[in-house]
Design goal:
This protein is of the alpha/beta class and 497 residues long. It has 19 helices and 21 strands. A 7-stranded mixed sheet has the order 17-18-16-15-19-20-21, sandwiched between helices. It has a 6-stranded mixed sheet with strand order 3-2-1-6-14-13, sandwiched between helices. Strand 1 and strand 2 form a beta hairpin. Helix 10 packs across helix 17 and helix 13 packs across helix 15.
């Protein structure tokens, strides 16, 4: 018989509620509801802060679940479970009654400026890395919490629970305040070797230890839906199961890999470039290369680096008011074997903030680095895409140096896997086969990890189900000596910067 499950996926720009149907080793997925995720600048007495519209997201989730319940009721099946995945690092503080304190602020809010330096004054960066194995980024939960302690200490005094975004939704759905390990591992407050919160680090940073909730693994059955929700949504038979709650962890769980020599890019607003390894890899060289150890399914480690991804083009497109189809068509006018002369580091701090100035920041970068400004919008887009492919190679070569593994195949999953030009550029620049898809890897991983938690699927079946249900598209390299010359220049540019 078929099994039905629900996945809630909350992304940086939108949320989805999807129905999965698992039967005879194949998975079908139907998106029942999409809703926007539009952050808001909220004024306070002294300045504005960038907030997530967390209550708007909750409303979108409830509308999607209501559609699912109506569908199940009308067609005579029941939904066994649901689980939520979302982006990392951002969190809610709740008081003893479960009330929100201060909302949920956005990781791009400028409040974290200077907080890394405050942290390093309390504990050296090499010691923080030794404990957490996490990439240093100013948006990490640790630095956000230090900002709260500095600007709004009363929130920490009143707080009873700290819940990251998917944990918050699981709490609202089930009444259980728990932290799922894959999302906890994005905070820089989690020790991946001990698989627990790093209490020594938390104490050293002056943060209240009691707000950190008990940890649970992916596939953990939390509880049935709250009775009032279950009745209203017609989901009386549905339990809440934690998937790999970090969206990247769910995406990696759905990589349709057939062998052991593979790497991945979870491609979207961010590009997460990495390997799945058995144990955390925490070394001085990994720290210098700024790689991160995030927890995966079944105790694996996602050893990866965050690359800025499609964020730059998303912001430019918003300003230009153009379609993706038009932008990529314009970018494809340049021949594949003729790389541009001008490239950028996607991870330059200039490109991190949100704002209408992104196209101007690109021009500013080229001027500051003494490069020719691409003369058209299409070539500007092409430069960003080529730069992403070049940065992917740079990170892959660092991965191979650190792990001693040779990556033969690169799997690209997520929304960016639909961009054929970027896939071709990536295959050509890295000189290896690229397998693109599935696009909805995060939803698939969410659903299949739930299925494992319910005993509907064994761990060694998961990737085979994805490969059978959603075969990836192959892209092979097209060698050109000019690309080798271009990469050498790009590599020197990064090293010098």
């Amino acid at each position: 018989m078929a099994s039905y499950l629900l996945a809630v996926d909350l992304g940086a720009s939108s949320g989805r509620v999807a129905l999965g149907r698992l039967e005879k080793g194949r998975l079908q997925v139907e998106i029942l509801h999409r809703f926007p995720n539009n952050p808001l600048w909220v004024p306070m007495l002294d300045k504005e802060h960038l907030h997530w519209n967390i209550l708007g997201l909750w409303q979108g989730v409830l509308e999607g679940l209501e559609r699912a319940g109506q569908r199940a009721d009308s067609e005579g099946f029941y939904i066994e479970s649901l689980g939520v995945d979302a982006w990392g690092v951002d969190f809610a503080l709740l008081d003893a009654r479960g009330g929100l304190l201060g909302g949920v602020l956005h990781y791009r809010d400028p409040r974290t400026e200077g907080q890394m330096e405050r942290a390093f004054a309390r504990m050296p960066p090499d010691e923080i890395y030794r404990r957490t194995g996490l990439q240093f980024l100013p948006l990490n939960t640790l630095y956000q919490l230090l900002a709260v302690a500095q600007e709004s200490p009363e929130w920490l005094e009143q707080a009873r629970y700290l819940l990251l975004v998917p944990d918050l939704f699981h709490f609202w759905l089930s009444g259980q305040a728990r932290s799922e390990r894959t999302i906890a591992s994005t905070t820089q407050l989690y020790n991946p070797t001990q698989a627990d919160w790093d209490k020594g680090l938390i104490q050293q940073m002056g943060l209240p230890e009691g707000i950190f909730c008990p940890l649970v693994p992916p596939g953990h059955v939390l509880e049935s839906l709250r009775p009032s929700l279950a009745q209203r949504l017609k989901l009386e038979h549905t339990v809440v199961v934690t998937p790999a709650s970090h969206d990247t962890a769910s995406a990696v769980a759905a990589v349709p890999a057939r062998n052991s020599a593979w790497g991945y890019i979870s491609s979207g607003t961010w590009s997460l470039v990495g390997l799945e390894i058995a144990q955390p890899l925490i070394s001085e060289q990994a720290r210098r290369f700024n790689f991160t150890n995030e927890t995966g399914v079944h105790g694996t480690t996602r050893f990866l680096k965050n690359v800025m991804g499609l964020w730059i083009l998303q912001e430019c497109r918003r300003v230009w008011g153009a379609s993706w189809e038009d932008l990529f068509a314009e970018a494809a006018q340049q021949r594949l074997d003729e790389p541009l002369e001008s490239h950028l580091d996607p991870d330059h701090p200039l490109f991190l903030p949100a704002g209408e100035e992104m196209p101007q920041r690109l021009l500013q970068y080229f001027r500051q680095t003494g490069q020719t400004i691409p003369p058209s919008r299409g070539l500007l887009v092409r430069s960003v895409l080529e730069s992403l492919a070049l940065k992917y190679r740079f990170v892959l070569e660092q991965l191979e140096t650190l792990t001693g593994q040779r990556i033969q195949t690169l799997h690209v999953v997520g929304g960016g896997s639909q961009i054929e030009l970027l896939n071709l550029l990536t295959a050509t620049v890295i000189g290896r086969e690229v397998l693109a898809g599935p696009t909805e890897a995060t939803l698939l991983g969410n659903l299949l990890v739930q299925a494992e938690g319910l005993g509907l699927l064994s761990p060694d079946q998961r990737r085979a189900v994805v490969a059978q249900s959603f075969p990836p598209q192959r892209f092979t390299p097209r060698y050109s000596p000019r690309w080798e010359e271009t990469y050498q220049r790009f590599e020197q540019h990064l090293i010098q910067r």
